[in-house]
């Protein structure tokens, strides 16, 4: 087994517990991905808004003032949900869901695994490496 204490199974912890904690950590990793997509959404929406501003300017320069004003009035700065811009969605997600998820994943690991992280994966690595094969070392 790896010499890294943070990946070592605590004494007395059974396979079912290691698997359950691993499943919760995997679920947290999925929320991390969702959070990343939320930031993508936030930045892409802001970029689209900036591009609409450019399009309105170009329409105005091309003599289409009424359409440019329509874009500026009805689309530029528009809420994505009632009363909400994307930064508010990010903040709400982090405060309402993400931070609570992280706290509970940490609590479960602390309570059941003594804080050890990725024990399930570390043990899988040990089972799947070929001893002595380059690129299969357990530790750097």
Report on the architecture of this protein.
The chain is mostly helical. 68% of the residues lie in helices and 0% in strands. It has helices at 15-61, 65-74, 86-113, 119-128. The longest helix has 47 residues, at 15-61. The radius of gyration is 25 Å and the shape is elongated. The relative contact order is 0.19.
Brief rundown of the structure:
By secondary structure, the protein is mainly α. It has one domain.
Write the layout of secondary structure elements.
Layout (H helix, E strand, L loop, with lengths): L14 H47 L3 H10 L11 H28 L5 H10 L12
Helix pairs in contact: 1-2, 1-3
Highlighted features:
140 residues, mainly alpha, elongated
Helix-strand pattern = HHHH
N-to-C span = 14 Å
Rg result:
25 Å
Shape: elongated
Overall residue-averaged pLDDT value: 93
Strand content: under 5%
Q: How many beta strands in the DSSP annotation?
A: 0
- Biggest sheet, in brief? none
Low-confidence stretches: none
Integer count of domains: 1
Q: State the share of residues found in helices, binned by percent.
A: 55-70%
SS class: mainly alpha
Tally of alpha and pi helices? 4
């Amino acid at each position: 087994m790896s010499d890294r204490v943070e990946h070592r199974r605590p004494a007395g912890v059974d396979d079912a517990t290691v698997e359950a904690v691993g499943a919760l950590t995997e679920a947290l990793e999925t929320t991390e991905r969702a959070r990343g997509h939320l930031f993508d959404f936030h930045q892409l929406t802001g970029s689209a808004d900036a591009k609409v501003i450019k399009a309105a300017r170009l329409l105005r320069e091309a003599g289409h003032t009424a359409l440019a004003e329509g874009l500026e009035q009805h689309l530029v700065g528009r809420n994505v949900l009632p009363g909400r811009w994307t930064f508010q969605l990010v903040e709400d997600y982090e405060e309402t869901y993400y931070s609570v998820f992280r706290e509970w994943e940490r609590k479960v690991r602390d309570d059941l695994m003594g804080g050890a992280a990725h024990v399930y994966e570390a043990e899988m690595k040990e089972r799947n490496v070929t001893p002595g094969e380059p690129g299969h070392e357990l530790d750097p």
